[in-house]
Structures are given as C-alpha cells and as structure tokens.
Design a protein that fits this description.
Strand order of the largest sheet: 1-10-11-12-13
Distance between the termini: 44 Å
Structural class: alpha+beta
Radius of gyration: 21 Å
Number of helices: 9
Number of strands: 30
C-alpha cells in the first residue's frame, strides 16, 4: 500500500508518489512487495526526462495517437503570431520535444507560466472509449457517499466517479448524441465539463503533462493546441483564443446520483488500464491550510489556500461562497452579474483527496447553484430540519435542484454552471472575485 504521508512539504508528496508520473508508476506497480512495505520510491521525472511508456487501453488506439484522430477543417487563427516566440521558448519551463505540431508562435498567456508536471503528454491517459454500467453493477465498487461528477443531457444521465477521474483527468464522451469532455484536476479540485465541438469539428482531448497555476493543461489531438482546463480557453497553438462551452456537471455523492437518476449509468472500471480505483494517491492533499503543489503564485490570503468554494461567474462578475460559510448557511440567495441565483449545500459527500481510501475520507458536502425562477415565478428557499424547501409551496428540493416532494414534485430548477474548486486556484484565475458574505 501507499505511505501515509501528510502533505507538509513538496518532497513528501514526491516521495509518496502523489503526482504526475508517480501516479502512473505507483498504480501500475500496485501490489508489489516493495511498495507494500514502503521501501520503494517511484520514478520522478524532470521536464527533460523521457517518461516510461504507459500501457495502452485494450482494444483501442493509444490516447496519444494523433494520426488516428479525424482531420479538422482549416481553422482561422484568432491570435497573431509572435515573431520572437523562440526567445519566449528559451525561457520556458517545459519540454517541446513532443510538440512539433504545436504552433508556439500563437499564445494568449506568457509561455513562462507553464511548467512541467513531471510527466510526458498522455502519461496521465485520458479515457477515450468509456464504458458504462448500471448502478447495481457499480454498487460494490462505490461507497454511497463517494463523490461523482453528475452529468445529464436530454434524459441521458451519467456518473463519473472521482476515484476513476483522479487517475485519468479527462474522459472524451458522447452523451445524448453530443460530444462532451469531462475533466478533473486533483491539484485544484476542479471538476469541469465542456462541449467539445468547435466550429463543426469534434475535438479529442488529452493531457499535456504540463500545468499552469497548478491546473491541468489539456491539448486537442486535431491541432495540438493547448487548453486551460480551468477556463476552457485555448491558450497556445492554432486555436489560441478559442473558447469551449461550459456544461453543468456538479460533484455529488453516489447515493444522490442514484436517487435522482435510478436509470442512470456510471463510468465502468473497465478503462483498459490497470489502476487501483478507490485509492487516493493524493493523501491529505486537501488540508485547507496546506500549500498548493507546483503553484508559482501567491495565494490570495482572504481564504485558506485549499478552502473549497462554490465558484460562479455571471456577466463578467465572479463570486465565491466558502464551504465553511455554507455549512452554517446551507441555502444562500444572491445576485451576481444582474442575475438572481440560489446556492444549495448538503452534507453526505466525501472528499476524493483526503484518506488513502476514498471511502474512508471525511465528509465535505456537495453543492448546487440554480436560477430560482420556475415557470415565471421566483421561488424563495430555506433550510429547515435537514431539508431544503421553497417558501411558496413547501415542496422539498434535492441538491440537483429537483423537487422530490410536495406540490412541485417532478419540477426542476435550471442549473447554473459552478465549480467546487480550491480557493487558491479560483483566485489565481479570478483575482477580482467577491467572497460571500460581504463581497470582499
């Protein structure tokens, strides 16, 4: 098993095999005698070190096989090339060895801001041909309070357990006929879904092995452009300046997903890779006062670095609702960017980044953000006796904004895209965020 390491420093993380290629090496070797007694250390890579070849999923193309991806139509670049980009690359902290197809002359953020995460492209392999099983088939692998990303489109509901995403970070999927990409960056606790069709071309995403502000940097296999997971923006390459469309995919408990979508499906452990799903390789990474890893900025001191926040951006305004506040005030009505929203919080969802076994992790709760207007009527909500109800009808609502009892049973609020991110990461990308309460 893994060393039980509290994250007091960066080198402890490395020695425990908790990031990048360490995840790949550790999990591939799981069950060996040396790892069991804690005597072996995983291989650690530098930005210029060749990563070991990882296994390919059975019966599929390699996730990094760009030649197998469909050729896109010619995109018109939106960002003018920098004639002096080679000088910028001289100062870069990542290797360009694998990126001969990437147009580094076009970028929207300084190339110096990217840094190697210690793993080559696709060293953390995306899931490109996901398989799904029924809740009954998955129950023995998932604790009821384990966290999943919940995504529903036109009646097709799917759960993506964080115990799987923590090892893959990207799932290229098609839901109700719509190509989507499900993403999760453990270092920022950022779980985000996007449409992956751009100007009529379906993009397939993989991991670059690089980070910016500690956040996952993805690439598309059609143009080898780099994309910032946190913002959904192409930041380097032919597509620099393009923006993906965000989709609502909240983190909730496995039990809440089953209750809301009894006919829903869940991502299978049959990924084609050998990983110990259910093991957390980032033991106690989410201690609120602990330092972020591979983060070059200065954490915004208004909150603890890894305080979870409900993060919302509307009309160019950004707001953060700390989980510590929501624990005391589980229903919050707020106005942001000219729009009224309501934020729900409930207990019963575990962290994926706490204990060695996710099923033993502490309860951090789940959240939902919604438009309170239903069929032309603005509802007011309150939390009482462990339930969320509306004041107009007394109907009971779940964390997904579904009325489950009362006059409005069967009705659904319109979700507002939000994240349950670590504060340091959200503030790095959104420094002008107002924090509730007080709008600081």
């Amino acid at each position: 098993m893994y060393e039980r390491v509290i994250w007091n420093g960066h080198w402890q993380m490395v020695l425990a095999g908790l990031i990048g290629i360490a995840v790949v090496v550790t999990m591939a070797g799981c069950g060996s005698d040396n790892m069991a007694d804690g005597t072996a250390s995983p291989e650690i890579l530098t930005a210029t070190t060749e990563a070991p070849i990882t296994e390919e999923p059975e019966g599929t193309d390699s996730p990094g096989d760009r030649a197998s991806s469909p050729s896109p139509q010619a995109f018109s670049p939106q960002v003018e090339p920098d004639p002096d980009y080679e000088s910028a690359l001289d100062d870069a902290r990542f290797s360009t060895n694998y990126w001969s197809d990437t147009d580094f002359s076009r970028y929207t953020v300084p190339l110096r801001e990217f840094r190697s995460g210690g793993v080559r492209p696709d060293g953390i392999p995306s899931i490109d041909n996901p398989k799904f099983v029924s809740p009954n088939q998955a129950n023995f692998r998932l604790d009821n309070e384990e966290p999943v990303m919940a995504f529903e489109l036109d009646g097709d509901a799917r759960a993506y357990p964080l115990q799987i995403l923590i090892f893959h970070e990207i799932v290229n999927d098609v839901v109700a006929g719509v190509p989507v990409v499900i993403t999760y960056c453990p270092l920022c606790n950022s779980a985000i879904a996007f449409e992956r069709t751009l100007e009529g071309v379906v993009l397939d995403f993989g991991t670059t092995g690089n980070l910016r502000n500690s956040d996952l940097v993805m690439y598309d296999r059609q143009t080898s452009s780099w994309w910032q997971q946190f913002t959904g923006e192409a930041v380097v390459g032919t597509l620099a300046g393009r923006q993906l469309t965000f989709l609502s995919a909240p983190i909730i408990s496995w039990q809440d997903f089953k209750d809301a979508y009894p006919e829903g499906m869940v991502l299978s452990h049959e990924t084609g890779y050998q990983r110990e799903y259910g093991i957390n390789p980032y033991i106690q990474y989410d201690l609120p006062n602990s330092d972020p890893f591979l983060f070059d900025g200065v954490s915004d001191g208004r909150l603890r670095p890894k305080e979870r926040v409900v993060a919302v951006t509307i009309g160019g305004e950004a707001a953060a609702f700390p989980f510590s506040t929501l624990e005391e005030e589980p229903v919050i009505s707020h106005r942001i960017g000219g729009m009224e929203i309501v934020v729900f919080f409930q207990d019963g969802t575990k962290s994926a980044l706490d204990s060695e076994l996710i099923s033993f992790s502490r309860d951090v709760g789940a959240t939902g953000v919604f438009d309170p207007v239903l069929e032309g009527r603005t509802l007011s909500f309150r939390y009482q006796d462990g339930r969320i109800t509306d004041e107009q009808t007394g109907s009971v609502w779940n964390i997904l904004g579904h009325a489950v009892d009362g006059e409005l049973a069967g009705k659904m609020l319109t979700p507002v895209v939000h994240g349950n991110h670590f504060w340091f990461a959200w503030a790095a990308f959104n420094p002008d965020t107002a924090i509730y309460p007080g709008g600081e």
